[in-house]
Specification:
Blueprint: E1 2-5, E2 24-29, E3 38-42, H1 49-64, E4 68-71, H2 77-87, E5 92-95, H3 109-117, E6 121-124, H4 136-147, E7 150-153, H5 161-171, E8 175-178, H6 189-196, E9 200-201, H7 205-209, H8 224-231, E10 238-239, H9 240-247, H10 251-263, E11 267-270, E12 274-277
């Protein structure tokens, strides 16, 4: 464990710009990440399949572009964002609302270890012996938004920690991005309301990358693993099973690639659950 005082040179400069910055940070792992360009991805603990899918898509693509992914290491959207950011050898920071001796939730202790194994960083403003107190979690969210360039809200209920994080971000003059959701979906309430009130509606990771000049070029590069799938897609509809055989990839790998290519508007899903290449 390393303690970083507010007066230390290693203290994140972004946190000095927020209201009530933590006096010290208790850290484990790669503290150099604390001054790296970061996007926070937050959302519901009771995430839907839709939420988990797009939290993963966004985290993986942003991490591949060189952006560190921040979240709160909760189950649901947070955990998904951390895990998928590491799939592209990207880096991630988890901000805890308890001490380092009392990891919460217990079922994410594996994730805590995984983050450290992959040269990520775990931080908290609370001393190691501090037990879990739910009252500390809303206050913790100012650090999540404070360390980031912007906050992506994937899913969030009417009254939620993710909504609090978004409001902190707005107070800190950070961009807030939201993935839209179906009307009537409880976990879609806050993203839709934030969009209605002026937050940025995003439907693909490139929408976020466009906000930050230094990452725009990454936007145009199609990764090799997706290129292999894309090369076999033409004017004649083709299925995921056929693509798996042609590329020697698993169905899971092909499905993920198809999702990314579809988000990039390079292909279209046509009747019969097959895919065709979009005309340029």
């Amino acid at each position: 464990m390393e303690i970083i005082e507010q007066t230390d040179l290693k203290y994140p400069s972004k946190l000095l710009e927020i209201q009530n910055p933590p006096k010290q940070l208790y850290t484990e792992g790669n503290t150099e990440l604390l001054n790296m360009p970061s996007i926070a991805i937050v959302g519901s603990r009771k995430a839907t399949d839709y939420g988990r899918k797009y939290a993963g898509v966004f985290a993986k693509k942003l991490a591949k572009a060189g952006i560190c992914i921040l979240s709160g290491m909760a189950i649901g959207i947070d955990g998904t964002a951390h895990m998928y950011s590491m799939k592209e050898k990207g880096k991630t920071i988890a901000v805890l609302g308890s001490g380092l001796d009392d990891i919460y939730p217990k079922e994410n202790y594996y994730l805590y270890q995984k983050i450290l194994e992959n040269e990520g960083c775990i931080i908290t403003e609370y001393p190691p012996e501090t037990k879990v107190n739910m009252a500390n979690f809303p206050r913790r969210n100012r650090i999540i938004s404070g360390l980031s360039m912007g906050v992506l809200v994937v899913e969030a209920r009417k009254r939620s920690g993710s909504t609090i994080t978004a409001h902190y971000a707005l107070k800190q003059n950070k961009e807030v991005f939201c993935i839209p959701n179906r009307l009537g979906e409880k976990t879609g309430y806050s993203p839709n309301l934030l969009i209605k009130n002026g937050a940025n509606l995003v439907t693909c990771p490139e929408d976020i990358l466009e906000f930050y000049e230094e990452f725009k070029e990454e936007n145009t590069k199609l990764s090799q693993e997706y290129q292999e799938i894309y090369d076999f897609i033409g004017d004649m509809p083709i299925s995921a099973n056929e693509l798996a055989k042609l590329t020697n990839k698993t169905i899971a790998e092909v499905t993920e690639g198809l999702c990314m290519l579809e988000l990039d508007e390079l292909i279209t899903n046509v009747p019969g659950n097959k895919y065709v290449r979009n005309k340029k």
